[in-house]
């Protein structure tokens, strides 16, 4: 008799434990070392070679396999099953450009305490001329990009921003967004946004001017941003409101979420300040608020399981071009410069080894994660992990995860959601 996991179930080995990824239900089941050893051994040998069916000791292994069967994760076979040809995971295409951020200017009328781009009224490192931005919109579209975001600094301080939007519109981008502090939006701009199907993203740090303006260091900014938000909503322009929590606004989380709910805008828990640019300052770290740490349950699906084994779950297909022409894989990954479009055609940077390395940064390359059984289900933010690392290493593990794959334990006491945690002893499953 033989035992096999279903074709839609994938066994992933960690240093201490393992996991069964059910690509049909999306659940990821943790299993202990003994269970992992048994399932691995079952791939090559008949159960009679592995277990003594009469031994009460080996009964626990059979009970485990029956449990897996009941859960729809595996099956017994009388004869050795032939290797199945139909793969449960789809083929993964090589990454291609999908999304592009254009950081039009490093200047800003605000001067936020935490700004990763270190923008402000006196900041000016803008080197890309207008003609080059226009060309880049076409080049990126030709390379496959279907979504574009104009950002900064403050993108509305860039004098030719309207012409860039018109260009993106005529190049038929599916999604066009401007990420703006919204202090400079006037009625004419709103008519323009509507005409060109522009989406807007903006940021609030509190539901009141005192706290918000103490972060933007621009008196009157809350009133201007809030006035624009109301006008945008009244005009039916798609609007996202972001919020970042740091020490001065750590008690504003509930107020911000309530304000968004009252405005009828999607409510998501705010992000915490990231240690990049002016944000790299321990004094800004909130103590009363933290984002959810990485922990189970993890979920999977055929596409993301296959993709996680060859590409980065978030970075793949994205680039940002800064106002000085640098191409970086994400607006927060300031030090990962993959080329500069002032010296190099965009296509050359897109096909270059540096960007390819970023796009292919799988968890199999990341310290600690490479030995973790959750590595093909767990998400990853490389710039955040890098920023929190004392040596700023690109392949550093995330500080938001307390799992130790070498002991199979979570430091914060999280229990591995397991189907067999205590019943399968570790060690030999060999008769
Ligand atoms: C750099 S701004 C550019 C767009 C516009 N000026 C604004 O503030 O909305 C884009 C977003 O990044 C956020 N941001 C800036 N520095 C950050 C940091 N260190 N950590 C997390 N988010 C940050 C801002 O709060 C804003 O929501
Ligand atoms: S976060 Fe935005 S508004 Fe604030 S300084 Fe940076 S670019 Fe300007
Ligand atoms: S962050 Fe790394 S170690 Fe932690 S659960 Fe995810 S893959 Fe495992
Ligand atoms: S999640 Fe991280 S890697 Fe992805 S876009 Fe955001 S900052 Fe960049």
Could you describe the 3D structure shown?
The strands form five sheets. Strands 10-9-8-7-6-13-14-15 form an eight-stranded mixed beta sheet. Strands 2-3-4 form a three-stranded antiparallel beta sheet, covered by helices on one side. The two termini are 15 Å apart. Helix 5 links the parallel strand 7 and strand 8. The protein is of the alpha/beta class and 431 residues long. It is built from 13 helices and 17 strands. Helix 4 runs parallel beside helix 5. One iron/sulfur cluster (SF4) binds next to loops.
Structural class: alpha/beta
Order of helices and strands: EEEEHHHEEHEHEHEHHEEHEHEEEHHHEE
Residue share in β-strands: 5-15%
Bound small molecules, by name, code or SMILES, are:
S-adenosylmethionine, iron/sulfur cluster
Quote the distance from N terminus to C terminus.
15 Å
Round the mean pLDDT to the nearest integer and report it.
Answer: 94
Outline the biggest β-sheet.
8 strands, mixed
Could you estimate the helical fraction of the residues in percent?
Answer: 25-40%
Order the strands across the largest sheet as they lie in space. 10-9-8-7-6-13-14-15
Please give the structural blueprint:
Layout: E1 2-5, E2 9-13, E3 18-22, E4 28-31, H1 33-42, H2 47-50, H3 56-70, E5 74-77, E6 99-103, H4 130-142, E7 147-151, H5 161-170, E8 175-179, H6 187-195, E9 198-203, H7 209-216, H8 221-234, E10 239-242, E11 244-245, H9 253-263, E12 271-272, H10 302-308, E13 318-321, E14 326-328, E15 339-340, H11 346-350, H12 353-359, H13 382-388, E16 403-404, E17 409-410
Parallel strand pairs: 6-7, 6-13, 7-8, 8-9, 9-10, 11-12
Antiparallel strand pairs: 1-5, 2-3, 3-4, 13-14, 14-15, 16-17
Helix pairs in contact: 4-5
This protein binds S-adenosylmethionine (SAM) and iron/sulfur cluster (SF4) (3 copies).
One iron/sulfur cluster (SF4) is lined by residues 108, 110-112, 115, 117, 119-120, 152-154, 181, 216.
